Amino acid sequence: MKRSYLVAIFVFFVSFSFVTVNLVSFADAKRKTRDLVFEEDEEVPVAKVKEGGETIETVAVKTTIELLRDGKKSTVLPNHEFKSGDKVKFIYTTNRDCYAYWLSEGSSGQYQMLFPRPKANADNYVKKNEVYTIPVKGKFKFDEKKGVEKILLVLATERVPELEEAAREASENKGNVTAAAAPVKSVEKKQETKRKTRDLVFEEDEDEGTGISTKTQSNPNPAEPFVVYYELVHN
After folding, report:
1. Taking each helix axis from N to C terminus, what angle separates 161-172 and 181-196, rounded to the nearest 10 degrees?
2. Is the pLDDT assigned to residue 2 strictly greater than 80?
C-alpha cells in the first residue's frame, strides 16, 4: 500500500512537471509573438507630416532568431555568435503591408535568393503585424566552415523589378543569382548613397532582454525600398 502511494506521488509530480514545462514553453512562444507585434503606443508611425506639409513614411521590422543548439531551443539576436551544428531561422514582422525579399550574399558578391522561392509556394507580400519565418519551412544549419553569413532583407511597398528578376533567375538556377547580381547590387548602393546624404533616416535597436532586433527607416518617398543587413557570425 505504501509503495503504491509513493508511486502515485511520483507519477503526479512527473505529470505536474511535464505540464509546467509545456505551459512555460507555450507562454514563451506567446511572449515572443507579442513582443514582435508593433503596439499602438510605440513611436513607429507609418506616416507623419512634417512642417511644410511633407509626409514622411516609416517602415520598421522586428526580427529575432530561433536557435536550436544541442537539442535546446532559444531566441537570440542576430549578433549572437553561432557555432557549427546550430540550426536557426529568422522570425520577423513589419509595421506595414509590403513585399519582402531575403537574400544571402557571399564574399564573391554572388547572391542566393532565400525568399521568395517558387518551390516553397509562398507569396512574398507580407502583412503588418503578421509573424513570418525564413526559411518558410525548416531551418538553416551552420556547417563546419567558419565565417560571417551576410543576410540581406529588402522591404518595399511596391514590387522591386530588379529583385523580381533575381527571384525568377533563382527559380531556374537552384536559388543562385548571377546574371541579376549587378541590378541587386545597384538597389543596395542606391540606399547606401541616400542614407549618407540623409534622405533616409535609419535607426536600429537591439533588446538583449527579449532577443528582438528592431530596424526602422523614415523616408519621404513611400515607394523607396528599405534595405536591412544582418551578419551572422559563425565561430
Report:
1. 150
2. no
| Cα–Cα dist 177/159, whole Å | 18
Q: How far is CA 127 from the centre of its chain?
A: 14
pLDDT in tens, 20-78: 334 334 344 444 556 888 876 565 656 665 656 677 888 999 999 999 999 999 999 99
State yes or no: pLDDT of 202 exceeds 80.
Answer: yes
Task: Decide if 129 contacts 95 (C-beta within 8 A).
Answer: yes
In terms of pLDDT, which residue wins out, 118 or 141? 141
Nearest to 182 by CA among 195, 165, 168: 165
Report d(CA 96, CA 62) in Å as an integer.
12
Residues 6+ apart with CB under 8 A from 202: 195, 215, 216, 217
Contacts of 130 (CB under 8 A, 6+ apart): 93
Residue with cell 512527473: 14
- Which residue is it, cell 525548416? 138
- Strands 140-141 and 212-219, by their bridges, are unpaired
Type of residue at 226: F
Report the first-to-last Cα separation within the chain, whole angstroms: 57
SS3 content of the chain, % helix, strand, coil (to 5): 30, 40, 35
